[in-house]
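hi! just following up on the protien thing from before. the input was this:
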Amino acid sequence: MRSFLIQWLVTAVALAVCTRIVPGITVSTNEILLISALVLGLVNAIVRPVMVVLTLPITLLTLGLFLLIVNGIALAIAAWLVPGFRVASLGSAVLGALVISLVSYLLGRLLEPRR
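and the predicted 3d structure came back as:
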């Protein structure tokens, strides 16, 4: 349960950074930000694997670059599901997904226990 909460907060912080950096991605309130992070996690856990399997031939042809588009579509789906969370275009969604991935990775590396 603790790791779920940490991952949820990391996603929320990454989404907050994304709204500051990427034009076209907005979140109306902090509560909506937390809800959006939760919905984004659910979309990434449920819908994204199906999209990855369905787009596997295109992903192989583009040497994996199409996964950026898949991540952007997942972000757009989360925005569509949460009122108050807005993504203006597919370009904003792809750039936002890239920023969220990088910030989440960096925060995850900072928060992981030392060995």
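The chain has one domain: 2-111.
Residues 36 and 82 are 6 Å apart (CA to CA).
cheers
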